[in-house]
Amino acid sequence: MGQREVWRFMSRFNAFKRTNIVLHHLRMSKHTDATEDVLLEKKGCAGVITLNRPKLLNTLTLNMIRQIYPQLKKWEQDPETFLIIIKGAGGKAFCAGGDIRVISEAEKANQKIAPVFFREEYILNNAIGSCQKPYVALLHGITMGGGVGLSVHGQFRVATEKCVFAMPETAIGLFPDVGGGYFLPRLQGKLGYFLALTGFRLKGRDVYKGIATHFVDSEKLGMLEEDLLALKSPSKEDVAAVLENYHTECKIDRDKSFTLEEHMDKINSCFSANTVEQIIENLQQDGSSFALEQLKVINKMSPTSLKITLRQLMEGSSKTLQEVLTMEYRLSQACVF
Questions:
Q1: What are the structural domains of the chain?
Q2: How many Å apart are CA 93 and CA 85, to the nearest integer?
Q3: 61-116 pLDDT, tens per residue?
Q4: Is 98 marked active-site?
Q5: Catalytic residue among 97, 145, 146, 204
Q6: Of residues 47, 88, 98, 316, which has the active-site annotation?
Q7: Which residues pair with residue 83 across a beta bridge?
Q8: What's the distance, Cα to Cα, between the start and end of the chain in Å?
Q9: Is 37 a catalytic residue?
Q10: Which end of the chain has less neighbouring CB within 10 Å, N or C?
Q11: Is 199 a catalytic residue?
Q12: What's the predicted TM-score (pTM) here?
């Protein structure tokens, strides 16, 4: 067998191997028993969604999306379901984002699942944003990317001292999707633009600054859930009252100021520009240690992603969530292919 024939054989073997890997992931995603990737349970007055991939930081798969969406719509119409709770298993993460490994392996094997994944993920994000029942996301641990999309558009977002929030997409050649173009430009000043372009991580009580609606001691999270489930035919106001009670009682970092508070003037000034080039120039001219540190971070990001992200947020600032998600779907397909 000549060198060329060996090369052709190895190419076919590698393609076959990649295809088998993808098919394995797809077969694994079809299981529906109680040990699977997402648990959908009716408990008391609530429908409870548990992201159940703790070893993989509860990263989101297409199969999980396809289970959550129809159940969410059923609970929304069910007169015996008064609220919906979503949480992550394992204690380390709510959801660290979409499982891009499966998507990447599928693309290598010429299995085009990316268009389907993004489309159905964004449809779920919109359903959460328009859900007529109180929707409570318990943000304990890592909450990034796709995990933000499962939570931030709902009525209530409860963070703990172990919550780590970020939209890190500019580091991997993408943009802060799942409705990032909607909620990020609506944060205080230019905070959302800063978070989107730098991927800066908010931790603990800092997540309460525009992302979370409530902040609760992680040790009380189980009790909070029990109290919510024990409510009898609760209204939105009843749910809010329980959350507010736990929020008020939480003493962790109560007197701690927002980590970025002292830098907000610089953030508002430097990130108010309409071009990435001007933002970079603003940071250079500012010259402070904080500005130079952000400049160093931005210079490590994908230049194309930075430009797309800035335009995305500028456009999204005047659009509805549904309009933003439509825009982001088109952007996602342009970035992936």
A1: 38-336 (3.90.226.10)
A2: 16
A3: 999 999 999 999 999 999 999 999 999 999 999 999 998 787 778 777 777 888 99
A4: yes
A5: 146
A6: 98
A7: 46
A8: 36
A9: no
A10: N
A11: no
A12: 0.88
